Amino acid sequence: MLDQIKSLASQYAEDIILSRRHLHANPELSFQEYNTARYVAGKLRALGLEPQEGVAGTGVVALIRGQNPDSGTVALRADMDALPILEASEVPYKSTNPGVMHACGHDVHTASLLGVAQILSRLKEEFSGTVKLVFQPGEEKAPGGAAMMIKEGVLENPRPAGMLGQHVAPNIPVGKVGFREGLYMASADELYVTVKGKGGHGAMPDQNIDPVLIASHIIVALQQIVSRHANPKIPSVLSFGKVIANGATNVIPNEVHIEGTFRTLNEEWRENALRKMKKMAEGIAEAMEGDCSFDILRGYPFLKNHPELTRRSKERAVQYVGAENVLDLDVWMAAEDFAFYTRQTDACFYRLGTRNEARGIVSSVHTPTFDIDEKALETGAGLMSWLAVEELRRMIG
Known about the structure:
By secondary structure, the protein is α/β, with parallel strands linked by helices. It has helices spanning 2-11, 13-25, 34-46, 106-122, 145-151, 211-229, 267-287, 307-321, 339-342, 375-396; strands spanning 52-55, 59-65, 73-79, 130-136, 162-173, 177-179, 182-185, 189-196, 200-201, 236-244, 251-252, 255-264, 291-297, 303-305, 326-328, 347-355.
């Protein structure tokens, strides 16, 4: 089976690349993946599959039934949405939707899973069980398409005993993959803070209540939540990336808007930290005769890979790409709504190397110049196919 999958992955590599380029050139934002979903469903129907469309709005689900389809189910997930980024690369498949770009590799994930569909549709007489293909919308935007698909029953009928997902890794050379058992990715909550004061002339601060000064104290003070209240053994990140104080050199505004993110790997600390931040911000504003509204948009939980499934997947990856091409990953403080699946079933989320320094393919995700070495697509489709059939084989014993 290993050689068959490798052969088919090579045979379909060009098709997978073409799918990726089509998706890259036609990106759609979170929960707006209408054309993407139609494209995916069309490709699946061409393989003789019967995709279920409209799951969580724009999600697509399909089943590949092998022999004895009720003997076990493995789910495979790809996210489909793009980011609000203006692409700067001048590649032939550059985004034709200005201001929208596949800068996080979801085009790669979707094309790879379409490749899996091609491979396993050819091999369905060769394995037992069912492979559930999950093409998910809205990974980049809370509340996340994963939670919505779960609510609509994506993990039922049939219920998978295991689930796999992959993500591009621009820091890992193409041809290599990475795994980590247990805690892997952080929770992520969005913070929206409005500080109100009394604006006026910058030359007469005594007649005003300066919200810029209040906001400055709040930003600095909130960092103490992480540096002085967090257990040093629990990774925590608090970052503010947007501050709007729409005054002028001599104008103190009436209010200041602040936006940021808080990330950690412990749910109890997460709740405690958010509570402390809100209390501290409101207290500082009140002490300085201003007012503060502190709104929290709850994001994704931390992602914890199932140890045994991840260990098995890593061993199978060694069989597929060789021990020298399988890496151990460190904790990554980015967030992923795949974490919702890990709360419902055994799951493993791993990384797919896409970097090629010789060709200048080194840009990080979420940047205007992000791209991949497309050789990663053959690895992505083939490895995921192999992991799926081997896990099904283990279920049957």
